[in-house]
Write a structure and sequence with these properties.
Layout (H helix, E strand, L loop, with lengths): L1 H28 L10 E5 L5 H13 L2 E4 L10 H12 L20 E9 L2 E2 L1 H9 L6 E8 L6 H8 L4 E2 L4 E4 L8 H10 L2
Parallel strand pairs: 1-2, 1-3, 3-5, 5-6, 5-7
Antiparallel strand pairs: 3-4
């Protein structure tokens, strides 16, 4: 009889512990409240669509406004031509690739997500061009982006380029392969919830 009661007690405790774990897991996977970040602007550059997809996932989770950066010089759409063009541009250590997108007015925003792809271990040149043009005026900035091979110091280089920004810890440059994952929104949502 004692053994039976102990078994029931352990089963009851296991169920309680399991339900607590389930409740905790459910709480962690809840979508973010659009108010979590306040008024959000997502500024990004994307040439192949990877960073654009990431920016749109962020937008869907934080209900932000989006500003896509466009280059003054048109870049090739074909992947190999694009790679060859970027390699040629990056041969010059002082290379620039200007954006024609107007500098955004940040007054109305609480948080700015700022991101783009990594090119040869560095932030993409159009993103760096916009970073040079913007005075973030003490705004909270979250760095994001995508890479295909090696992000190296891209995050820290971009962080240093953001004038007067309060860069929030936990920004992330994602391997582009997460965008092909079954649930990229869930992966991005977990990242956002951890900020």
């Amino acid at each position: 009889m004692k053994r039976f009661l102990l078994t029931i007690l352990f089963l009851a405790l296991g169920c309680l512990m399991g339900s607590d774990a389930l409740l905790a897991q459910t709480a962690q996977s809840q979508p973010l409240s659009p108010d979590s970040f306040g008024k959000v602007l997502i500024v990004y550059f994307s040439q192949t669509g990877n960073t654009e997809k990431l920016a749109n996932i962020i937008k869907s989770q934080v209900n932000g406004d989006v500003l896509r950066l466009e280059t003054a010089k048109e870049l090739p759409a074909q992947p190999q031509e694009l790679i060859d063009t970027i390699r040629a541009i990056l041969q010059n250590p002082n290379a620039k690739l200007e954006v024609k997108t107007a500098v955004p007015d940040l007054q109305a925003y609480d948080v700015i997500f700022f991101g783009g792809p990594v090119w040869a271990g560095r932030p993409s040149l159009p993103l760096m061009d916009m970073a040079e043009k913007i005075d973030f005026q003490g705004k909270k900035v979250i760095i994001f982006g995508t890479y295909g091979r090696d992000p190296r110091q891209a995050y820290s280089v971009l962080e240093k380029a953001l004038k007067n920004a309060k860069v929030i810890e936990g920004g992330k440059i994602f391997d582009k392969n997460i965008l092909q994952a079954e649930e990229p929104g869930q992966i991005v949502g977990q990242w956002l919830a951890g900020l």
